[in-house]
Amino acid sequence: MDLEVLQENLSKALSITSRFVSSRAQLPVLANILLRGDKTKLILSATNLETSASISLGAKIKEDGELTIPAKNFFEIVSNLNSGTIHLISEKESLRITGSGFTGRISGMNASDFPKVPQIIKKDESIDLSKTKFLNALPQVSFAASSDEGRPILTGILFILSKKNLSLVATDGFRLSKKTINLEKAGREIKIVIPKNILLEVSRVGEENENILLGVKEKEKQIVFGLDNLILSSRVLEGEFPDFEKIIPKNSSVKVRVDKEEFLRAVKLSSVFARDSANIVKIKIMKDSIKLSAESSQVGNQETVIDAKINTEGPELVEGEISFNYKFLEDFLRAVTGEEVVMEFNNASSPGVFTDPKDPNFLHLIMPVKVQT
Amino acid sequence: MDIDKISTWNDALQSIKVSVSSAIFSTWFSQTHIAEIIPTDERFLIEIGCNSSFVKNTIETRYFGLVQDTLTKILGKPCDLTFVIKNVPSQKEAGSKTITPLFEIKEERLDEEFTNILLRARIRPGHTFENFAVSSSNQMAHAAAEAVAQSPGKAYNPLFIWGGVGVGKTHLMVSVAHEVLKKGSETKVYFCTGEDFTNDIVEGIRNKTTQAFRNKYRKLDILLVDDIQFIAGKDSVQEEFFHTFNAVTSAGGQIILTSDKPPSEISKLEERLRSRFEAGLIVDIAPPDFELRCAITQIKSKEKGLALEMDQVQLIASNLESARKIEGFLVNLLTQIKIKKVPLTNELIETSLGKGVETNGKMAKKTPEEIFDTVSKYYQIGKRVLLGDSRARPIARPRQILMYLLRTELQMPFEEVGRLIGGRDHSTVMHAVNKITSLASTDVQIREDILGIKNKI
After folding, report:
1. Residue A372 lies in a domain
2. Are residues A49 and B85, on separate chains, in Cβ contact within 8 Å?
3. Local structure of residue A123 (DSSP, 8 states)
4. Taking CB atoms and an 8 Å cutoff, what residues of chain A touch B58?
5. The pLDDT value given to residue B90
6. Is B65 part of the contact surface with chain A (CB cutoff 8 Å)?
7. Is the minimum CB–CB distance between B57 and chain A shorter than 8 Å?
8. How many angstroms separate the CA atoms of B35 and B38, rounded?
9. In this structure, what CATH number is given to the domain that contains residue A332?
10. What are phi and psi of A89, to 5 degrees?
11. Do residue B102 and residue A151 have CB atoms under 8 angstroms apart?
């Protein structure tokens, strides 16, 4: 392999791919990045056997070839070089790097030991995820996914693809977030659970790319994201996602509409004391306002009253108070884009429904905290 | 031949471990398993499950020969390998049992919600297919009802169930609604009696809200009318029902009716209604036989938390002929046990049965003479012989049955029974009543005799 590549391009590509190198690889080759010079392109690939990344960048190739070299060392060297042309030459199992006065040699390993990483995505077999809508929807859902590895299926986000729509659902068992976006092109019907991590990567790098393609390899239990010249892959989570449709309340006895900023401020205020008492903030519904209160036996107590539009459909108002984990409320309020939020309750032991009146495709459920009285 | 997949693979892994470095082994092989072994004539087809496509590709391209050789050595026959991506089965289940709060209350809340739905449809929650006992007497009706529950509006429309009191018509009808609502709570179901229907119309006419009445009934997916015979002879009600019937069925809705008679025998029923009823399926339910009554007794006692032995169940079932009586008796028994704090014994059941179950005075109108006549006619024994001194069994048994009936049906005191049966001692009567009570649970002949006589009274 003998090629020339621009430092800016290589450094950027390495910053993405090096995140996919396994940090504690038992197999040394997995700590490496695969470099492949192919006609006009330099392709960098990395994998940790769960996920993989492969990026291709334009280069001047004098001689094709491939080699793997330790990701960490290579990235550190490249990122500290001056911008400009870098010359990479493979010499047996090591790589010579020259550029702007620097000369170095890193010993690597034979490329044949490196696992096969998906490097292409077939356009006609993949689904176009309407980039802007998808990237806006992801953060509204992903925060609700669990980080508890004890129940792996909940650490993923459920993708329900239908003819025209894509629904994203995530839950950690205490709250649930669901967002539906419509796709421009019709796809096939698929239901898969995709790990949260790969989606975070997609949203991190997706902004700069033209479009986001999703390919599903059902037989291999793998999904592939195509972001222009970057191909990301991940395994699909196996298991049964909880039947979330059933727990979405169909009706409610009281509907509360409040200003988002005001409510967020009240939640933040309550957190001062709620932090010390199991994160509990109590919401009391009154005639045309709601009262948030929190108390801690050691630190003190507080309450905030904010104006609200209350609609009761049942004959009587909800009696007493409903307690929530303030962190869940805060997470939801940060995810909402509109200026107002609507909350619907039935009683203190059934999930509250949180919606954005301007966005009928977004739905959030939070389970109240059971308070012993 | 059955080969233990786990131990085979463990053996194979042990020997692979020797051939490759530990890093390679733990990276590629530690998460694999044998998904399936299919033995063919001379070979084995082995499917190896890998946890990701990377593992699959690597083993398939680099270690195929090694795995194949190892497995061939262990199994003693040539092996063919295929690879799939599958998690190790035991890992899949781990942790999935913990229920998180959002999903935990689901059941409870659904139950509550479901009860509300049932209440809205005016359906009694306790009546389901699960607690409906089936035997030859109601098998047909049960099968028809299940078919209707499977595909309402399509199987049999209308379903017309008829039979005597307390045979389970209403229970069956409500079970259908229950089953349908369980599948989809959106279905519009309404249960009413023939009389409710009549009252609703009367109300509608009086308050000039017949439109509301029509909206209520004509847009239903399933309409259940109990005791439809009550609308017979009421012209405007029949007319309204006729239109309701047409509206519901033409929209693909299901109608289920119950009555105490088949449509052909309901007098003053309009011809057009009769023909419509007859167009569906008409099934009858006969009074429960002994085995069915046993099953009913068991179901009901379980519901009430009463632990009955099999012989006690038979004792009760043989002495009481309808499901309602059995229920009433069990309530009575439970109260006695709770209030008097006496243990549940065969004696307690026998004495309670001996006293007879409280009836609404219908039986009390019968005179002892009528019972005398029926018994002597049934056994073809002269009255004088029956009350005489003969102790021969063909005479004595009917006499005991007579005493049993006088005691249980008319609630006469022992002394009085003794006086009527040729001036016998009250202890003789007590003995006779106990004897028949226990015989009825074991002797089919006696059971049939008692039933036959009771039917004739």
Report:
1. no
2. no
3. G
4. 115-116
5. 58
6. no
7. yes
8. 10
9. 3.10.150.10
10. -130, 130
11. no
Residue pLDDT, tens place only, A3-29: 999 999 999 999 999 999 987 778 888
Least Cα distance to B177 among B193, B188, B164, B166 occurs for B188
Residues in Cβ contact with A277 at an 8 Å cutoff, skipping those fewer than 6 apart: A294, A295, A296, A297
Mean pLDDT of all residues belonging to chain A = 88
Between A247-256, A318-327, A346-355, the lowest mean confidence (pLDDT) is in A318-327
How many helices (H) and strands (E) in chain A? 6, 26
Mean pLDDT to the nearest integer, B165-177: 87
Q: Please give the tally of structural domains in chain A.
A: 3
pLDDT tens digits along A114-138: 888 888 888 878 888 888 889 999 9
Domain that holds residue A327: 248-366
Q: Which of A33, A32, A29, A23 is nearest to A57 (CA)?
A: A33
Tell how far CA A70 is from the center of its chain: 27
- C-alpha count within 13 angstroms, C-beta hemisphere, residue B366: 23
Are B139 and B166 in contact by the 8 Å Cβ rule? The answer is no
Residue A218 has pLDDT above 90, yes or no: no
Length of chain A counted residue by residue: 373
Q: How far apart are the first and last CA of chain A?
A: 73
d(CA A44, CA A222): 20
Residue B1: pLDDT above 80? no
Q: Would residue B234 be called left, alpha or beta, if left means φ above 0 and alpha means ψ between -120 and 50 degrees?
A: beta
Average pLDDT over residues B304-326: 84
**Same domain, residue pair A41 and A141:** no
Taking the Cβ of residue B423 and every Cβ of chain A, the question of whether any pair is shorter than 8 Å is answered with no
Q: Is the pLDDT assigned to residue A54 strictly greater than 90?
A: yes
Distance from CA of A100 to the nearest CA of B (A): 38
Residues 71-100, chain B, touching A (beta carbon < 8 A): 85-87, 92, 95-96, 98-100
Which residues in B lie closer than 8 A to residue A234 (C-beta atoms)? none
Report the distance separating Cα A75 and Cα A15, nearest Å: 7
Is the confidence metric ipTM above 0.85 for this complex?
A: no
| Cβ distance of A116 and B26 shorter than 8 Å | no
In a domain, A118, yes or no: no
Answer yes or no: do A206 and A260 share one domain.
no
Q: Cβ(B142)–Cβ(B179) under 8 Å?
A: no
Question: Does the beta carbon of B103 lie under 8 angstroms from any beta carbon of chain A?
Answer: yes
| pLDDT(B94) > 60 | no
Task: Choose the most confident range, by mean pLDDT, from A166-170, A272-276, B210-214, B271-275.
Answer: A166-170
The nearest alpha carbon in chain B to A30 belongs to B27
Tell me the chain B residues in contact with residue A115 when contact means C-beta distances shorter than 8 Å. 54, 57-58
For B88, list phi and psi in degrees, rounded to 5: -60, 130
Which residue spans within A73-198 are E strands per DSSP? 85-91, 94-99, 102-107, 127-128, 156-161, 165-171, 175-182, 190-195
Give chain B's domains with CATH numbers: 5-93 (3.30.300.180), 117-285 (3.40.50.300), 290-355 (1.10.8), 363-456 (1.10.1750.10)
Which of A48, A110, A116, A346 to probe the B interface (max B CBs under 10 A)?
A116
Mapped onto helix, strand or coil, the DSSP state of residue A362 is strand
Of all residues in chain B, the percent with pLDDT exceeding 90 is 4
Q: What residues in A contact B23, CB-CB < 8 Å?
A: 26-28
pLDDT for residue B192 is more than 60: yes
Q: Which of A231, A251, A225 is nearest to A127 (CA)?
A: A225
Whether residues A151 and B85 touch (CB distance < 8 A) is answered with no
Q: Which of A249, A243, A244 is nearest to A343 (CA)?
A: A249
Evaluate if residue A155 carries a pLDDT over 80. yes
Which residues of A fall within a CB distance of 8 Å from B106?
246-247
Kindly tell me if the per-residue pLDDT of A194 is higher than 90: yes
